[in-house]
């Protein structure tokens, strides 16, 4: 009895081949660069493809092979199919020594086959077939071959689409905390927020975000891909959003992936990482010393915060002047002409919250003599408020300085303490409120990331004593042109006088009744020129300015009619 009937081979036509993260492949592509030994790979066994193959007598063996694509040459070489070790896969020369006898039998070699006029290179017949990332998205011919005990052979085949259905998994970076004084980092995050979605492998993300994460927590603090991107068909993008007040607050980095598959893109969220930006409040408020002087020599002292912000603050100042007339005796000032009480209220917008309402109700009243040396007068700089956070614990220290300033304000008699960064000295007094324990509590809303309540406003009053030692100035009236009555040779002229004073904006010109004359004439001009010798003014003392003049002056002379026709006075 002879068996001449080939086996009946049945292939699973519902077979799905998807690449996974099998670690045993030991070839080429490796991701991420840190290395976890994960690769895109699939191994399909012959028994997985067999769907009930049989033989009339006795089946000897079932094997599997797949079509070979030259794009996968590097993977097959790396996997060990390069028998002659020349880094090429060659038909009839290379294959897999399955039985380990040191030689390649025909079924263990790559072969070229032609079916239905189509030629394809097939891998050796093995118990399994292997698939790699180079196959992703391609259709591969998979053949299942069977031999019976009599050597009869038959096969079935299917065309398989190689897919990657493994969803990616990641380990997010750890959250970090920085300070608003880390200017370059904060500005980088603000720039990143304006760029939209950034590729995590691109330079924008690397320099603007990842550089911060790794600088704080170390080089290992990066987004780690655990699975799903072995074939590098997944793109991860990061989007930065900020919730900052005066460059302090939180920055959220949101990660999402897009995986390209043979059936379209698959997208998903990975998670978020929060970067906390802590506020730092350090600034100088330079309240000026009291002033005494002539009103013409008193400068505006409202610029108490020029250059005062040292960290992450925005200062604003309100100036309120209250003027009081000085004491007088018999109509004359006893000391100063008047006093100005100039009250400064400085607010830090980076600590204030609008829910607190009027900031002045929470202002610390700065003492005028914090070092208790008896006076604020001429203390070379008034009182300076030095806000510091030396240990960066979010709880500021407030110091007062009233004698240490050595740098005078340029070209001015008013002395100011050192402008710009200032180191607290041993004799600078720690803060207290001029009102003692009666000052109001701070607003509970004003915190912005610091420890406890915030002191965000300071109030200080400067005394200004103004002396007025300069007489008012009566301004010359404008020139008057008049003509005499041809019959009486007289004319009536209305002359208006004005006056000004350096210290008053409401100076009046008043007549003094009860004297022989109200005004004295100083000079008379004729047609814009000096009064000629042939003209005289009567009465003669009218030009003396001795308050003996009358309200009428007569100009007489010996000139002819053309010379006496008009006159100009002022």
Largest sheet: 5 strands, mixed
Number of helices in the DSSP assignment: 4
Structural class per helix/strand content? mainly beta
Mean pLDDT reading: 79
Topology diagram in text:
Layout: E1 17-18, E2 41-45, H1 46-49, E3 59-66, H2 73-79, E4 111-115, E5 118-122, E6 128-132, E7 139-148, E8 153-163, E9 169-171, E10 176-179, H3 183-193, E11 198-199, H4 203-217, E12 224-227, E13 234-245, E14 248-261, E15 264-278, E16 283-287, E17 291-294, E18 315-325, E19 328-329, E20 332-333, E21 338-348, E22 364-365, E23 383-388, E24 397-401, E25 429-430, E26 457-467, E27 473-475, E28 480-483, E29 498-500, E30 524-526, E31 529-530, E32 535-538, E33 554-557, E34 566-569
Parallel strand pairs: 1-8, 10-15, 17-26, 22-26
Antiparallel strand pairs: 2-6, 3-7, 4-5, 7-8, 9-12, 11-13, 13-14, 14-15, 16-23, 18-21, 19-20, 21-26, 23-24, 24-25, 27-29, 28-34, 30-31, 30-34, 32-33
Helix pairs in contact: 3-4
Q: Your description of this structure?
A:
- The protein is built from 4 helices and 34 strands.
- With 570 residues, the chain is mainly β.
- Strand 23 and strand 24 form a beta hairpin.
- Helix 3 (183-193) runs antiparallel to helix 4 (203-217).
- The radius of gyration is 50 Å and the shape is elongated.
Key terms:
disordered C terminus, five-stranded mixed beta sheet
Short recap of the structure:
6% of the residues lie in helices and 34% in strands. It has helices spanning 46-49, 73-79, 183-193, 203-217; strands spanning 17-18, 41-45, 59-66, 111-115, 118-122, 128-132, 139-148, 153-163, 169-171, 176-179, 198-199, 224-227, 234-245, 248-261, 264-278, 283-287, 291-294, 315-325, 328-329, 332-333, 338-348, 364-365, 383-388, 397-401, 429-430, 457-467, 473-475, 480-483, 498-500, 524-526, 529-530, 535-538, 554-557, 566-569.
């Amino acid at each position: 009895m002879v068996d001449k009937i080939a086996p009946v081979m049945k292939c699973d036509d519902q077979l799905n081949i998807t690449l996974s993260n099998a670690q045993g492949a030991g070839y080429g592509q490796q991701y991420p660069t840190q290395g976890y030994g994960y690769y895109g790979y699939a191994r399909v066994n012959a028994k997985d493809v067999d769907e009930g193959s049989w033989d009339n007598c006795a089946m000897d063996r079932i094997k599997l092979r797949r079509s070979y694509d030259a794009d996968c040459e590097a993977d097959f070489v790396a996997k060990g199919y390069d028998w002659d070790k020349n880094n090429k896969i060659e038909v009839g020369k290379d294959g897999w020594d399955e039985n380990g006898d040191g030689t390649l039998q025909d079924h263990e070699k790559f072969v070229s086959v032609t079916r239905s006029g189509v030629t394809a290179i097939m891998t050796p017949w093995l118990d399994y077939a292997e698939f790699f990332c180079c196959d992703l998205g391609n259709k591969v011919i998979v053949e299942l071959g069977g031999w019976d005990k009599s050597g009869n052979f038959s096969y079935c085949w299917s065309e398989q689409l190689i897919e990657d259905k493994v969803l990616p998994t990641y380990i997010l970076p750890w959250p970090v905390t920085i300070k608003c004084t880390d200017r370059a980092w904060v500005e980088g995050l603000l720039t990143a927020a304006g760029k939209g979605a950034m590729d995590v492998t691109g330079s924008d993300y690397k320099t603007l975000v990842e550089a911060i994460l790794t600088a704080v927590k170390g080089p290992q603090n990066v987004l780690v891909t655990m699975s799903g991107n072995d074939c590098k068909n997944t793109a991860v993008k990061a989007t930065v959003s900020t919730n900052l007040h005066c460059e302090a607050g939180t920055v959220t980095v949101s990660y999402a992936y897009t995986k390209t598959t043979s059936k379209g893109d698959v997208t998903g969220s990975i998670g978020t990482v929060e970067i906390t930006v802590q506020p730092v409040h350090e600034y100088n408020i330079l309240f000026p010393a009291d002033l005494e002087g002539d009103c013409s020599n008193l400068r505006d002292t409202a610029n108490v915060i020029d250059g005062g912000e040292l960290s992450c603050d925005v200062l604003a100042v309100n100036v309120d002047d209250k003027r009081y007339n000085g004491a007088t005796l018999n109509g004359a000032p006893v000391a100063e002409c008047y006093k100005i009480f100039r009250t400064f209220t400085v607010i830090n917008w980076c600590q204030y919250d609008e829910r607190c309402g009027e900031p002045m109700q929470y202002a610390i009243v700065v003492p005028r003599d914090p070092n208790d040396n008896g006076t604020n007068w001429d203390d070379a700089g008034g009182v300076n408020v030095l806000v510091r956070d030396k240990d960066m614990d979010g709880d500021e220290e407030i110091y007062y300085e009233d004698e240490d300033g050595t740098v005078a304000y340029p070209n001015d008699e008013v002395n100011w303490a050192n402008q710009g960064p200032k180191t607290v000295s041993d004799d600078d007094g720690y803060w207290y409120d001029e009102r003692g324990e009666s000052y109001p509590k701070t607003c509970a809303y004003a915190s912005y990331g610091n420890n406890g309540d915030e002191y965000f406003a300071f109030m200080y009053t400067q005394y200004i004593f103004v002396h007025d030692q300069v007489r008012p100035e009566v301004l010359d009236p404008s020139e008057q042109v008049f003509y005499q009555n041809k019959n009486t040779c007289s004319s009536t002229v209305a002359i208006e006088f004005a006056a000004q004073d350096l210290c008053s904006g409401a100076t009046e010109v008043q007549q003094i009744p009860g004297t022989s004359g109200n005004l004295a004439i100083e000079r008379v001009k004729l047609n814009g020129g000096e009064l000629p010798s042939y003209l005289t003014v009567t009465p003669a003392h009218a030009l003396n300015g001795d308050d003996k003049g009358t309200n009428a002056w007569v100009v007489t002379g010996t000139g002819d009619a053309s010379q006496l026709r008009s006159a100009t006075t002022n």
